[in-house]
């Protein structure tokens, strides 16, 4: 069947008016779609149309409420005819005319309960996913969890009708992979990290999806990073090993990874000189569309650097 370039844009506005002990309404509305639809609690990235969904929830201090939804690339017997990449952008802000409930924590989890991202108070974050071309339809489940921690003293500060939090979720789908690179990147930090992945392929024996990853660390400072190391979290995919230029020394069940320099006694690989970079790559299991998070880079002469520039690029044909 002829492959058709699809660019599906879907905007979901989930407005949550949350007040202590009162009804919190989550309203999903879709208007003027180019392609795609939402049916009840589902994002469907094929066909045309629009729908809406409403659900009433209550929340009070020390309580947790959840809102679940599904992303699909099929509707009935119709399945998308290309690889499908999607990005969910969650923007948590104060409701119009009100002040935000600062203690609220909004967390997004996948179907296995892995935390993909979260924000406390107000803020914005992305969740990326994809469906590779296949004869059968695919789907992914997500849970939005809203938690109001209670310390027993400041809860009264948010009583009444002057406080409310709004959650806007923008969903965009495309045949072209998304990047986590911001449109207006911040000035260079001491260190830059680039995480790249190839288009995933399916293992003919196991049926599992695999891809190749590459990580590049660049030293933007005037001081060398001796005996470098890098650590980060990656929950939804699994990095198996490193082929060269790095040693995988930690791969814990909670998705934490740590790589060390290869220990070749070679300044070009064990240290990162000012203005220079080191790269390593290896095989991985999964779709290769999840960004690494909470990245730290350190060395024998410096403590861990957490304020760094991170760029993630997914679904490349090859890695140079």
The count of helical stretches stands at 1
The biggest beta sheet is recorded as: 6 strands, antiparallel
Strand line-up across the major sheet: 5-2-1-14-9-12
N-to-C CA distance = 32 Å
Please tell me the total number of domains: 2
- Uncertain spans: 1-40, 47-56
Number of strand segments: 25
Topology as a string of helices (H) and strands (E): EEEEEEEEEEEEEEEEEEEEEHEEEE
Coarse shape? globular
Helix content: under 10%
Could you tell me the mean pLDDT? Answer: 75
Strand content: over 45%
Radius of gyration: 22 Å
- Helix and strand content put the structural class at mainly beta
Protein name: Putative cellulose binding protein
InterPro entries: CBD2, CBM2/CBM3_carb-bd_dom_sf, CBM2_carb-bd_dom_sf
GO molecular function: hydrolase activity, hydrolyzing O-glycosyl compounds; polysaccharide binding
Pfam family, one: CBM_2
What does this protein look like?
- The chain is mostly beta strands.
- It folds into two domains: 7-174; 191-316, Immunoglobulin-like, CATH 2.60.40.290.
- 1% of the residues lie in helices and 50% in strands.
- The chain has one helix spanning 267-270; strands spanning 7-16, 23-29, 37-39, 42-44, 53-58, 64-72, 74-75, 78-79, 84-94, 105-110, 115-120, 123-131, 139-147, 165-174, 191-198, 201-202, 209-219, 229-233, 238-239, 247-251, 256-260, 277-285, 293-299, 302-305, 309-316.
- The radius of gyration is 22 Å and the shape is globular.
- The two termini are 32 Å apart.
- Residues 1-40 and 47-56 have low confidence and may be disordered.
- GO terms for molecular function: hydrolase activity, hydrolyzing O-glycosyl compounds; polysaccharide binding.
- One of its GO terms (biological process) is carbohydrate metabolic process.
